[in-house]
Amino acid sequence: xxxxxxxxxxxxxxxxxxxxxxxxxxxxxxxxxxxxxxxxxxxxxxxxxxxxxxxxxxxxxxxxxxxxxxxxxxxxxxxxxxxxxxxxxxxxxxxxxxxxxxxxxxxxxxxxxxxxxxxxxxxxxxxxxxxxxxxxxxxxxxxxxxxxxxxxxxxxxxxxxxxxxxxxxxxxxxxxxxxxxxxxxxxxxxxxxxxxxxxxxxxxxxxxxxxxxxxxxxxxxxxxxxxxxxxxxxxxxxxxxxxxxxxxxxxxxxxxxxxxxxxxxxxxxxxxxxxxxxxxxxxxxxxxxxxxxxxxxxxxxxxxxxxxxxxxxxxxxxxxxxxxxxxxxxxxxxxxxxxxxxxxxxxxxxxxxxxxxxxxxxxxxxxxxxxxxxxxxxxxxxxxxxxxxxxxxxxxxxxxxxxxxxxxxxxxxxxxxxxxxxxxxxxxxxxxxxxxxxxxxxxxxxxxxxxxxxxxxxxxxxxxxxxxxxxxxxxxxxxxxxxxxxxxxxxxxxxxxxxxxxxxxxxxxxxxxxxxxxxxxxxxxxxxxxxxxxxxxxxxxxxxxxxxxxxxxxxxxxxxxxxxxxxxxxxxxxxxxxxxxxxxxxxxxxxxxxxxxxxxxxxxxxxxxxxxxxxxxxxxxxxxxxxxxxxxxxxxxxxxxxxxxxxxxxxxxxxxxxxxxxxxxxxxxxxxxxxxxxxxxxxxxxxxxxxxxxxxxxxxxxxxxxxxxxxxxxxxxxxxxxxxxxxxxxxxxxxxxxxxxxxxxxxxxxxxxxxxxxxxxxxxxxxxxxxxxxxxxxxxxxxxxxxxxxxxxxxxxxxxxxxxxxxxxxxxxxxxxxxxxxxxxxxxxxxxxxxxxxxxxxxxxxxxxxxxxxxxxxxxxxxxxxxxxxxxxxxxxxxxxxxxxxxxxxxxxxxxxxxxxxxxxxxxxxxxxxxxxxxxxxxxxxxxxxxxxxxxxxxxxxxxxxxxxxxxxxxxxxxxxxxxxxxxxxxxxxxxxxxxxxxxxxxxxxxxxxxxxxxxxxxxxxxxxxxxxxxxxxxxxxxxxxxxxxxxxxxxxxxxxxxxxxxxxxxxxxxxxxxxxxxxxxxxxxxxxxxxxxxxxxxxxxxxxxxxxxxxxxxxxxxxxxxxxxxxxxxxxxxxxxxxxxxxxxxxxxxxxxxxxxxxxxxxxxxxxxxxxxxxxxxxxxxxxxxxxxxxxxxxx
Length: 1181
What we know:
5 domains; 9-stranded mixed beta sheet; Growth Hormone, Chain: A; neurotransmitter transport; 6-stranded mixed beta sheet; about 55% helix; transmembrane; acyltransferase
């Protein structure tokens, strides 16, 4: 024993010794926080939670033998004082009786106060836990319980005891709910989860049943304070363990925890409601018997105090037995969890009904043990079911759902002390037990509602369950349905389940004829545009139109209409001599018995035998046969709004959220729950083909020496987890987003991305930028791929990339905040080998770049906030890209994540880095690809301009179509730049037909030519009224063909020109401004994006002035006063080095006209890339 006091000299030594001991303890506990073994880590967490639950329930029951006696002692002391004061037996008798009646009520309220406050706080604590995670609420709960226990120890009046009991309810609302939720979160396997929750329930039972004798013995021999001080010490130790192991205030991953489903939504879930009802009903017998059985035993059995004190202790053993049996049964037969719960309720009901028939203490033990045995069955079966229901029906965040479970318990234990005694007084003890027993027996069949849900649970293994029995949740249900379709032979085409393969195939000479393709693409352009109309923001739930079932076939124009339309489109663009020559060729082509009729007959036959007669022509001639490199020449990009990342972790958090949205969108596709697009305008309400959406995440463009192959993987149960590829510092990593058939949540995705970033930074020997090879010409890339395939290591890496869902490219920052033009070019080509050009894989349809995005759908995320999507164009058109991108951006802005929780972070396997074996030949190929990409970077002339003078609202006020208006403005701008018009196309959707993609609209109409000439050449000779009539005429012609559907998000699309001496123009009209993206090539002496934008701005201002003058008579000169023609060009001068002007060497007959490719903003949800014609080509057929 240490003396009570110490000398001053001893004090420092004692302090140092204590500090040393605490330091050692701190080091040991600190090591617990860095446990690497996931099994041991979960075990430590389970111990912390079980001790917290044990403490809570011991504190709940330890007062049973202490507080009534203690309060009665206080009451007797008060009575004696009152007797002395009043000296009146009558008065004393009256007061004593009144006080005694009040004393019973006080005891009942005191006992119930904990459950009542816990009941009130639980809805808030559950939401709080969902927001901040499980560790902080658990730590808060332990602290509050510690305070409550100390208050109990030193309380000396009823008010303080009531406060302590109420504070305990507050602590329990946090500690109990957070503890159970933490177990459900860390133990993701159903077998492990059931076992862990069973152990927790055993501690709850032990605490509840051992507390009365524990408290009674210590109270009798050591006084009131001792049992509470012991519990307070244990609580303090558990709190220290929680602080050192869970580290609640240093858990950065908490910031990325998905948002849980609101508790009110969980409460109205019928399955969760049934479980909550069962938990309440099954605990009513225990809650109502605890305050009433003692009096009944005294009156009917003349039981001794020790018998009353030991009433519930024997029931601990059958409760533990029930937990053990349920865990074992659930592991072997997990689909019968509902049945175990029902059996437990029948046990409870039967046992409750037999309680009044007992004549002695020994007989009473049997029904009480039966009640606890049944409760063990119900709790152990249904608590894991709650976690499972949240996994498959909501967000895998467990705070609110286990708050509902706690509420269920609290309802029973709040009512018991308050109303049970009154029921016994009014109806009798027998009726109380019969009513409780009958309620349990009648409620048991309600658990049948859970039968189909629990059948989805995995039994021996998740793989076996997925293959043999029901799947777990929406994701696995989709996979199971796909497997069943495949087994029945239904998973072969996109018409059946949204997937399609595109095998390499040979064509007959007629089918692959280049001439045939040219003539019919030229001839059908306007005819199909008229019948197509533009899409589509109107949507309804999917009716499985993925493959176009139920849609009409694409019509085939008669030959005469085709040729007449072709001549009409060409006449005003050619000289008289050129047109006469073209007319003669067309006449010869369409002569009776000529080549035209022969080809037309073959097309008629083709249309009869195919869903879409033009589909293969379009796919092959437009994309797969094209030998140009994909970046700039083919792949469009969507540039996100500029992100402002304040710290490096922000870009990774953005990427994790983006991946979460991709997985959510893919789930919609896999389940065919994506709403069907419907046409607008004259064909409003017409459903559109959804086939292209289902190639977003399962297709890949495989390079070939002469023609590429579009490969789509059939959906089936995966031989290995689904994955995405993350590109970081020109290296590629495999990130599994599905592990054990469960999708990762955003917190785990962020953790995996952080690992990838660290791995990329720490690599001492980085592999060459293999992604550069995909930026080369298609034939060159095919040859390089053949060289790579010689090594098995490279084959494995290529296989992982080609089968991935999409790419996420984590780009390095590119200096200070970039202009829109610079960001657009970073998306298109990555800035070349010196920047992020090698951090891509252009063959994949979707690449997301937070950073930047591409196909493999590539999503690019730049550390400097430059983010977007790069799309390999062959599987789908622009509207699909736009719809997907809008979904992702809106998801990230306002939608909570709804991802199924996988394993905890510590259990996730580290991402795998793809390895490459590079020979000297591969290094030479890389150098060649890098050089070509750099030339593309220097050659691209991109100008993104935001026109702020007005937007589409002004155009609508003129009763004009914004799209047609802008198309005419583009024609005017081009004419002023080059003093002529050229063949121009605007994309038009033909998705109202089976397998429909796009055709084109010829925007350079005769009416547009008349207007631009009047505005330029005839400025003085043509009146303003005549110009206005010409403008309306040109717009009316254009309006017949188009309906603009701009994107609703402030993003923009851009692409390169499709011919060397042309322009690519994309626009996104908003209410008060218009975003233009104009591209051309520096190598062409005829084009300049900056000059074109200046002419475009002037054209838009002149057209506005013309409208204002003719509509209101205002002076256009005054309106333009003070305005400048600044183009707000945003270009990176390092990429804008213009090649020197070359003297023309073309003869008059060889002279080519600059060409322009026009697309609307979001590729305006209607997109195509038919190459425009030069003057030299215009007369060819």
